[in-house]
Amino acid sequence: xxxxxxxxxxxxxxxxxxxxxxxxxxxxxxxxxxxxxxxxxxxxxxxxxxxxxxxxxxxxxxxxxxxxxxxxxxxxxxxxxxxxxxxxxxxxxxxxxxxxxxxxxxxxxxxxxxxxxxxxxxxxxxxxxx
Length: 130
Prior knowledge:
Elements: H1 3-10, H2 14-22, E1 29-30, E2 36-37, H3 42-54, H4 59-71, H5 76-116, E3 118-123, E4 126-129
Antiparallel strand pairs: 1-2, 3-4
């Protein structure tokens, strides 16, 4: 498939796909006219790259880990690196859950204040009547 089709199927911009190639995260065959052609497996690979970026991994880290994640080729050092990255992902999940819980508390308090006529605005640390 050509780069535009891969972009459409994955929701990733053509520019991002070119960046993935520059970072050795993705490769394409070139036609005699220079057009990129990707195998069907590129769709899954791009989706995986997006997931790893969303988890906070850098392009360098993704490039180092992809052989293990895609092909199952792993050295003890690479497995250790995967475990470390997983711990970082777990910590980010914990942090996000705490942030969500905090937002839920604020929403609950604000909703209760609206029902009682209190404002969420604080002056000198005290709720102000509307």
